[in-house]
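Hey all, sorry for the wall of text incoming. These are the four entities for the joint prediction.
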Amino acid sequence: MELPTELIHATRFGKTRSAQSTALLEDYVELIADLLANEGEARPTDIARRLGVAHATAIKTVSRLKRAGLATARPYRGVFLTEKGEALAQRVRIRHRLVVDVLRAIGVPVEAAEADAEGIEHYVSEATLQAFARFLRGRS
Amino acid sequence: MELPTELIHATRFGKTRSAQSTALLEDYVELIADLLANEGEARPTDIARRLGVAHATAIKTVSRLKRAGLATARPYRGVFLTEKGEALAQRVRIRHRLVVDVLRAIGVPVEAAEADAEGIEHYVSEATLQAFARFLRGRS
DNA sequence: GTCAAAATAGAGCCTTGGCTACATTTCTAA
DNA sequence: TTAGAAATGTAGCCAAGGCTCTATTTTGAC
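and here's what came out:
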């Protein structure tokens, strides 16, 4: 841990950038899991509506999910998660709850907490996550 | 506030997306302000090194900053911030400190707090920011 | 003062994540 | 059962944010 300042910064920013590319896939996986659980199926049109994008955009991203080994889908037949996708969805869901709970505990209004968590959750490291859990345990 | 669920979600995600486009410009403005304050000048090469990108990328983004009215730069003469850019840098700096301080207060290790704040800060709304400030005041 | 090195700029390419427009498939209701 | 509506998929466009390669300008060492 004796890197020059600019390398520390570069590493930090680089991490932030690559986090952005995974953030979208995480959102999709989270949403697909939710739709499968609550509606029984995850159709591209529903995904698009929930994310506020055009259906073509959703379809294109789903194909990226397939390439990444997170989802499966056959033409005109809805989207499903692979085991890897399920596992990711699980992690994302837990992390989301943790972030929202911490924000709420700090005094953030529920609306803002839910909305901001959507962006924040993708940038919370494992160390921070553990600190969050400790913090919540310590005050319950 | 009586939107259907999918519209609430869509709005929320949409906000997250557009936040991403401003996140990079905020990082640049913050860094340029820092370089101007500590080095006396902000050269594209330094910006690139600190952000861990190629210098050409930095130059291209600086020209976007100019288009957005945040910075000025004459060929071969370094980058400066406009009033608007200064104001943004100020806000970003304050917000960054607040996020780091809250993370630290919760028990996040300093390294993780600094690193995660880099990503988190761009997604913290005004309401959340105020809650953060209250939280810190309440425990000092 | 000159010339090589460093910094700066520009061109052109790639992927992502949006979009619209059009084509195809599936579903549904008469 | 079949036509029209809805869903799905494809193609092609755009801007952002990366990259490399090449050209130009500035600077610094002699």
